[in-house]
């Protein structure tokens, strides 16, 4: 199976940490995305919807079984001594750089 054989979807939710609209706004956000990206199947889910966890699990399953992604690479992580983007931004804004 190849990636172009998969029915791709754009799944958006309100739990990203940077953009968390009220659940009542999700249908409007979905409509906006469908209008601007015709041909995409867009699904908007509240972070409490069990379908969101099912979607995440399905994506992870596809990545590990079909794309060769290692399970440990599916979660954000840093290596010992590595500076994160958040730490760089904090430092650039004049705040002290927290230890890695």
Explain what you see.
There is one protein chain. The chain is of the alpha+beta class and about 100 residues long. The protein has a domain at about 5-70. The protein is built from three helices and two strands. It has a two-stranded parallel sheet. Strand 1, helix 1 and strand 2 form a beta-alpha-beta unit. The longest helix has 17 residues, at about 50-65. It is extended. About 5% of the residues are buried. The model has no long low-confidence stretch (mean pLDDT about 85).
Note the topology.
Blueprint: E1 9-13, H1 26-36, E2 41-45, H2 50-66, H3 85-92
Parallel strand pairs: 1-2
Describe this protein with a few key phrases.
100 residues; alpha+beta; two-stranded parallel ribbon; 3 helices; 2 strands; 36% helix; extended
Q: Sheet bearing the most strands, described?
A: 2 strands, parallel
How many alpha or pi helices? Answer: 3
The gross shape turns out to be: extended
Distance between the termini: 40 Å
Helix percent band: 25-40%
In the predicted model, the low-confidence regions spanning at least 5 consecutive residues are none
Strand order of the largest sheet: 1-2
Structural class: alpha+beta
Order of helices and strands: EHEHH
Strand content: 5-15%
Count of beta strands: 2
User: What is the C-alpha radius of gyration, as a whole number of Å?
Assistant: 18 Å
Q: Mean pLDDT, as a whole number?
A: 83
Offer a concise description of the structure:
The chain has 3 helices and 2 strands; from the N terminus they run βαβαα. With 100 residues, the chain is an alpha+beta fold. It has a domain at 3-69.
